[in-house]
Design brief:
Length: 621
């Protein structure tokens, strides 16, 4: 859309002689600027805490030439220095963003739009509908909300994607207080309405659930139909939409069987945000937070989790295990500082190429990295010194400090950003005194570094349980890992982040005396209804759950796993559940916790989460 048309759409006067820029992208977060700055329109959103206009000079230097600013913004008086830029001055930038999106929507009145709202399941239904329908539309002609863009800002950014090639649009809408949905309705203008489960989530600003439901239903005031499955199962909701669109029952079932083989793990980024904020609340405002996104962010997907942490300003640092993880984050647009916890010698150049910061745990590692930094012609490259305070895995000890300080003083290649250590048992009361001993050892080493180097060095030793149980020793920084995903070591109420789900592929009545699965380890004492689910040990569903050692949840009821778990499939006993083919099956989540699964296997939640294979699709909400 040409900038001249945008001026008219926002009822603003174009009063400077500028090129008629072709705007293809709207930007509200300066950190997400992509490779097309000249085609970008930046909305300088203003809140009680921050004026987005402060980022305009930097964006201008990077090539952005179109900005929407508020009349009361400080930048309005500075526009004279940017004569070749277009400044659209408005009363309120959020209103302008929404008005522009509503105008864009009005350009395509004949395009069918599916609008989805609810408390849970919006993103899942949106993604499933896209997967079920995409084969019938030309490539790129279905527009949908990116990730979980369903807010007052996310919805207009989603609708802006519509263009002359769009044949179908699928948008989700979320609200947290009254009068928000009417603003979103005029932007989305859905022709087909879809309602997922409406529960207590985000209900603090509503008198009761009925008021919240009434507010959500405002999205559909002009819709041709509103679809709401009474069971609120996402798969059934998608089926109802396909029926309305005229698909034959046989074709629907065929597509569902093709798509539902995709076992999915749902990651609730709002829950993750709440969990991070809980741990933040235990720390001083000035204490920095390192968020651990190693091991594919504990199975949750390091790119999307990092994007969330960056966009919501939850982390000061990220930490990964190896250099390749950092490279993937940089390619995805993550610009937060990244610590490499386990740098491999063969990947040191990759670390520098991606502006990552290595953990240095030995003299050999220090010498090798300094040599490479010198070869690259760099100075004062940031590193992090690892102290072995009692874990006895990696790191320098007190007797190494004199030599280490001498080496660090004698060179200009690297500069120590932080010194840190790992607590071995901060989560166990019986090792309370040992944890204090570790902190003492760490402090002695850190003091030596600080005394011998002429600059400030950040200190950090607390992990998730340490933040809760040894808060007085938070130093300059803390590291948050498993706590992000809903695990407290101090009895705090946390939100579940990851839910692993699959669906029932088939149900058979198996008669008494017959065996189930490989090896014939389960024999039936009576006739039972046996269901098959498309998840196996190759997906991370442990073989040890087989033969009545594990359970899943179907229609709110626990169903035992029977027979051996196969590579791609498992069998469950659904007798007495009224289960049907296509029903949702929960492997872990709110109804069957990760802690319970870990306890059954005699392991820890970390292993359950990180064992979920990458072939399992991640869906974010």
């Amino acid at each position: 859309m040409l900038i001249s048309e945008i001026f008219k759409a926002l009822s603003c006067e174009q009063n400077n002689l500028i090129a008629d820029l072709d705007i293809r992208r709207l930007l509200t977060d300066s950190r997400e600027l992509n490779s097309e700055p000249s085609a970008t329109l930046f909305f300088a959103l203003k809140t009680d805490k921050r004026d987005g206009a402060m980022f305009i000079p930097d964006l201008y230097q990077k090539g952005v030439r179109a900005f929407v600013v508020q009349k009361d913004s400080n930048v309005v008086s500075q526009t004279a220095d940017m004569q070749d830029a277009a400044f659209i001055v408005v009363e309120d930038c959020l209103d302008a963003l929404q008005n522009l999106a509503a105008y864009k929507r009005s350009l395509y009145p004949t395009v069918p739009v599916i609008g989805i709202t609810g408390s849970n399941g919006k993103t899942v239904v949106k993604e499933w509908l896209y997967q079920l329908l995409r084969a019938d539309y030309p490539e790129g002609s279905i527009v949908r909300s990116p990730r979980s863009y369903n807010s007052q800002i996310g919805v207009p950014l989603s609708v802006w994607q519509m263009n002359e090639n769009t044949r179908l649009a699928i948008f989700e809408a979320g609200i947290s207080q009254p009068h928000e949905m009417e603003r979103l309705e005029r932007i989305i203008k859905p022709t087909i309405g879809v309602v997922t489960y409406i529960g207590e989530e985000h209900g603090e600003n509503f008198a009761d659930i009925e008021e919240k439901r009434a507010e959500k239903m405002l999205l559909f005031k002009d819709s041709q139909i509103v679809i709401e499955d009474p069971t609120h199962q996402n798969l059934r909701t998608c089926t109802a939409v396909l029926r309305y669109l005229g698909y034959a029952e046989e074709e629907i079932q065929k597509r569902l069987l093709e798509k539902t083989h995709e076992t999915v793990m749902e990651i609730n980024l709002d829950a993750l945000t709440d969990n991070v904020r809980y741990f933040r609340s235990l720390l001083k405002p000035e204490t920095k937070l390192v968020c651990m996104v190693k091991a594919f962010a504990y199975g949750a997907g390091h790119v999307e989790v990092s994007r969330c942490l960056q966009a919501r300003q939850l982390a000061d640092y990220l930490a990964v295990a190896v250099a390749d993880e950092a490279a993937e984050l940089r390619q995805a647009g993550i610009n937060l500082p990244i610590i490499i916890m386990d740098p491999e010698e063969s990947a040191l150049k990759t670390i520098i190429e991606n502006n990552a910061e290595p953990n240095i745990y030995s003299f050999g590692a220090l010498e090798n990295f300094c040599r490479l930094v010198e070869q690259e012609g760099l100075e004062n490259y940031p590193i992090h010194i690892k102290i072995d305070s009692g874990m006895h895995r990696l790191g320098f000890e007190l007797q190494d400090m004199e030599r280490l300080c001498s080496l660090l003083r004698s060179q200009k290649s690297v500069r120590v950003t932080s010194v840190f250590s790992h607590l071995a048992a901060a989560d166990e009361d019986r090792w309370h005194d040992f944890t204090l001993e570790q902190i003492k050892r760490f402090t002695l080493c850190a003091d030596e570094l600080s005394k011998n180097l002429p600059y400030h060095i950040n200190r950090h030793i607390l992990n998730t349980p340490g933040i809760e149980r040894f808060t007085d020793f938070q130093f300059d920084m803390c590291r948050l890992g498993i706590g992000m995903y809903g695990f407290s070591f101090h009895g705090a109420s946390m939100r579940n982040v990851c839910t692993l789900k699959t669906t029932l592929l088939s149900i058979k009545t198996i008669t008494s005396g017959e065996s189930i699965g490989y090896g014939r380890h389960t024999f039936l004492a009576e006739n039972r209804q046996i269901g098959v689910i498309p998840i196996g040990y190759a997906d991370g569903f442990d073989r040890r759950f087989g033969n009545y050692n594990g359970e899943v949840v179907v229609r709110g009821k626990r169903c035992p796993v029977v027979g051996n778990v196969c590579m791609d499939l498992a069998m469950i006993d659904v007798t007495g559940t009224d289960a049907q083919v296509g029903d949702e099956v929960v492997i872990f989540g709110d109804q069957l916790t990760i802690e319970e699964l870990a306890n059954r296997l005699g392991t820890i939640p970390y292993e359950i989460l990180t064992s979920v294979s990458r072939r399992v699709k991640r869906v974010y909400s």
